[in-house]
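Ticket #4471: structure export looks truncated?
Reporter: QA, pipeline team
Priority: medium

Steps to reproduce: submit the single chain below to the structure queue and open the exported record.
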Amino acid sequence: MFYFYYYFCYLLLQLLLLLLLLLLSSSSSSYYYYYYYYYYYYYYYYYYYYYYYYYYYYYYYYYYYYYYYYYYYYFYYYYYYYYYYYYHYYYYHYHYYYYYYYYNYYYYYYYYYYYYYY
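Actual output as written to the record:
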């Protein structure tokens, strides 16, 4: 923002100086000379201003897409690890129930054996 302020103040100063030179000039040749000088700087700053905004918006969209992909990959890895831990959670519980079933099976088996033979 300070750069914009500096730029416009400088441009205004240039225009005021040109206006002063135009008022002080008396001959027609010097008038056309400063007239040409004025339009030269006018178009110069116009294109400078245009390319500055082009540059500004280019970097604006560049950082916009940079942060967009950054958050995209962030959520991608977040869901990846979520899926990973969920899978292991399911896997360990599956084994827990499997061993639980296995343990009960043999428990009933020995119980039946004990009851039947004794």
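Status: closed, not a bug. The export was complete when the record was re-opened. Leaving a note from the reviewer for reference: The mean pLDDT is 73.
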